[in-house]
Amino acid sequence: MVGAIAAWNLLWERRPEPRRGPRPTLTLDAIAAAGIEIADADGLAAVTMQRVAERLGVTKMALYRYVPGKVELVALMTDHAMGEPPRPAGPPAGWRERLDAWARELLDRFLAHPWTLEATVGPRALGPNEVGWLEQVTDALTGTGLTGPEMLDVAVTLIGHVRAIAQQASAVPVDAPERTMGEALTALLSGREERYPTFAAALAGRDGRGRAFDFGLSCILDGVAALAGRRGQERG
Length: 236
What we know:
It is a single chain. Helices cover about 65% and strands about 0% of the residues. The chain is mainly α and about 240 residues long. The protein is built from twelve helices and no strands. The chain folds into two domains: about 1-80, Homeodomain-like (Arc Repressor Mutant, subunit A, Orthogonal Bundle), CATH 1.10.10; about 95-170 and about 205-235, Orthogonal Bundle (Tetracycline Repressor, domain 2). The chain has helices at about 1-10, 30-40, 50-55, 60-65, 70-80, 95-110, 115-120, 130-140, 150-170, 180-190, 195-205, 210-235. Helix 1 (about 1-10) packs across helix 5.
């Protein structure tokens, strides 16, 4: 609990420059970037205060002047790695187009930094960037007739779908031979079609391209559109 409070303060409160003592030689941005480099290369477990301090060329005790501990460090890294949410470009788009682009960009961020999947579970401190991602969802859905709680449920549902796809993609080793799950299952069911007839038939109809992300996203947005339509009828 203490770590969570400290993380909230680190993410949201501007720290005044000390009037006495040595002037700060590091920035929170530089500290976050050093931690991200380690996590991207070796995973979240490899991130320690000692390793980050070494990468920055300072002592671990010097690093503690800026970040109280690893909980706060990971919170800082996560908010920086996720970055600012995508902003609508060009003429205003409809809510569906905005949420489609939002989900695809979120997937890209998770895939760029797979360790964030581990860092973004359970009760924790959310930083300004992460809250900004949620703001984009509620802003896109404003005017659709959905209630505030429904807008938040849409955000949670979209995040869950994106995370599921990102986790599957991140679990495949970079040097693993390229073979889709569909291909593996087709080989497994060869000679066993009578036991699993409908599943084997469904696999036979695949064209080899993974469409789970697009399909799931489309279904979610179709559901949101249906709900918005019902809300419009209720208002009418």
